[in-house]
Amino acid sequence: MLAFLSLSSQATAMAVSRRDRVGNGVRCQGAPQGVSKGAFVGRALERATHRWPVPTSVAVPTGRVGHRRVAWLRATATQPTLVKPKQTGDAHADLCINTIRFLAIDAVEAANAGHPGAPMGQAPLAFTLWDKYMRFNPKNPGWANRDRFVLSCGHASMLQYALLYLYGYDRPNMDDIKQFRQLGSITAGHPENYLVPGVEVTTGPLGTGVAQAVGLAIAEAHLAATFNKPDAKIVDQFTYFIMSDGCAQEGVAAEASSLAGHLRLGKLIGFYDDNKISIDGDTDLSFSEDVGKRYEAYGWQVLHVANGNEDLAGLARAIEQARSDLSRPSLIIFRTIIGYGAPNKANTGGVHGAALGADEVRATRDNLDWKYGPFEVPDAALQHFRRKVDEGAKLEAAWKQQLAQYQQKYPELAARFERQVLRQEKSPGWEQALKECAAKQGAMATRQASGAMLNALAPIMPELIGGAADLAPSCNTLLKGTGDFSRHDYAARNMRFGVREAAMTAVTLGMRLHNSGLVPYCATFFIFTDFARPLIRLAALSEAGITFIGTHDSVALGEDGPTHQPVEHLASFRAMPNLYMFRPCDANEVAAGYALSLKSAHRPVILALTRQKVSKVATSSYDGALRGGYVVADHAAAGGTPDLILIGTGSEVEVVLAAADTLQKEDGLRVRVVSMPCVELFQEQDAAYIESVLPQAVPRSKRIACEAAASFGWSRYADHTVCVDTFGHSGKGDEVLKFFGITAQNVTKQARLVAMA
Ligand SMILES: Cc1ncc(C[n+]2csc(CCOP(=O)(O)OP(=O)(O)O)c2C)c(N)n1
Ligand SMILES: [Mg+2]
């Protein structure tokens, strides 16, 4: 099939832009005098030029390439003739690059699912970066001082799997690649950090990789500022990411990039695959901003490579320029053709997310002069890639020597480095500190108790670092005794995220997945988990234990009204896999919530905390709370069966306790009260424990759950609820609670009805 067109006659080069098309024809931009416009008219040629920009000897513009549909033609004739893509002009490099391309093509073909287009377009950049610049040790993917790489356009996963395999990581191996996207295979549809050791963060939701990369770079900056000495740079890593049009369009990437520019994270280098194609087709449909200018406005250095498919020297130059400016992050916008090499499908949405099909695969092999069979890796290419096994081992060995010198000179810091970064152990004494802190607290808002816990931990846990999305005073997240993490002080531990909940959460996740022992937390009003939810979900999926503090956790927050009053949030997070939704009733339980989160390295914890003051529950228990649910009061005789069980969480524990008192005193009812700060944790306990707290002898029809939130989910334990199943209202907190019946009086009333029934 014809795809690579060259017009032979007057050897003239020019660019044709889709935007420049006029009517049925093509307006020639920069066409030298004497070249007939007629040469560009005609449907077949038009289709071909739009589908396939053929880079030739044309002088490539070095400025912004964001104009739509730049198509390179050698306009030399009135009759089109076939030419093959030029590729890089370096036969050995092309061999390696096409090895990457065809692994992606063949794996997608075998799976009959996946995304070949982006790997085909990005292979030259990825090859240049990994081959010349990235520092890694394939046989030890966890080497602490490796550079970090994030494929934010996770749909291009075969690019990353091909790189890991070719450069000599143990997994994925060739069998894994042949099992791409199959059930049980580690080569999942999108890169998953918990499946493949060389994958730093899970990507797939577009834009989230960019934001997590910012977190990785922040972790690096913080560790470097903490541990490095003028004569010993034991932390020295770049963070690289590749983003696509979709990432450029997503808000989370914009938020995070804005923060990265503000923080001047000079060792963060992004690559934007500007191929102007997404699923719906041409990005012209919905996207016309100048991304480069936007990043410049964020404070990034922005560089352009006009021909990202063929200009290896240009790619290398840009990377070098990016690496040599450590005063700000860099974005390299490299223009590519999606599906480079596929004669009929390149430069179309059709190559984005479907197998090429046997005919097109054959045509692509022919087009790129690829003489090898499916999954065949030429020896010369493999040898080239695998030299990194030796090189990587040497890099790590040299670093270890450096570390040994560091240990001699700075034994104290080195000991901390070994504990925190290498062994990823927490500072000792944290549990004691939490318990002692809890014992000192009285009646107070649980958000205040949380602030007290953070500050009990801060002095003994230098690895604790975090902050809020512009709500530090409300969420009580400021650590005393340390400053603001800023471009002036990367060693400080109070993060100022600005009003960027999604980026905040992704950054926290990235910091955790730097896997260097940092204990990151982030905070906002519980309602604004709505802005963070996709990243909380990603943390849960990524098996990354981060702490998310959500204050102002119910309608009781009062005057700010329903826009700020969470209702369905507790239930929805309880439904999220691999997450602990923890709602403590007082300081003891807040301490337990922190303990849970510090113990839970692979499962995030959300702490839902009150704005309003709550009592200190005399019988609350740190250990009980760590079982998710426990008895806080029992008016039944020891061993006896209660008439009713009241279950409460957070601020409603004192409500149900007061109701139980009344019911016992005025009605002689034997009421048990259960505090259940964490339903999921309770559910994990053994059957005997669950039975000891919620005996079957007291059927669900004799149980009431009270929570100032949606009743959804409580039917597991109780037939009756005193909850809030509508949006809230603006008003004084206690009046709003009364309006919804979240009072001891109402619970008492309901309990009497239940007891009589
Ligand atoms: C947050 C999110 N929304 C939607 C998708 C589904 N999706 C996958 S790729 C894609 C767009 C592809 O365009 P681009 O990012 O330019 O990738 P390319 O086609 O160039 O490979 C979309 C909408 C997603 N993965 N993540
Ligand atoms: Mg694209």
From TrEMBL:
GO biological process, one term: pentose-phosphate shunt
InterPro entries listed in its UniProt record: THDP-binding, Transketo_C/PFOR_II, Transketolase-like_C_2, Transketolase-like_Pyr-bd, Transketolase_bac-like, Transketolase_BS, Transketolase_fam, Transketolase_N
Sequence positions that bind thiamine diphosphate: H155, G204, P205, L206, G246, N275, H352, F528
Entry GO MF terms: metal ion binding; transketolase activity
EC category name: transferase
Chain sites annotated for binding substrate: H115, H352, R447, S474, H552, D560, H564, R611
Cofactor remark from the record: Binds 1 thiamine pyrophosphate per subunit. During the reaction, the substrate forms a covalent intermediate with the cofactor.
Pfam families per UniProt: Transket_pyr, Transketolase_C_1, Transketolase_N
One GO CC term, this protein: cytosol
Enzyme Commission code: 2.2.1.1
Reactions catalysed according to its record: D-sedoheptulose 7-phosphate + D-glyceraldehyde 3-phosphate = aldehydo-D-ribose 5-phosphate + D-xylulose 5-phosphate
Superkingdom to which the source organism belongs: Eukaryota
Requisite cofactors: thiamine diphosphate; Mg(2+); Co(2+)
Site residues, Important for catalytic activity: H115, H352
Domain Transketolase-like pyrimidine-binding: start-end pairs: 444-617
Binding annotation for Mg(2+): D245, N275, I277
Keywords, in A-Z order: Magnesium, Metal-binding, Potassium, Thiamine pyrophosphate, Transferase
Active site residues according to the UniProt entry: E501 (proton donor)
Subunit structure: Homodimer.
Family of this protein: Belongs to the transketolase family.
Name of the featured protein: transketolase
Organism from which the protein derives: Cyanidium caldarium (Red alga)
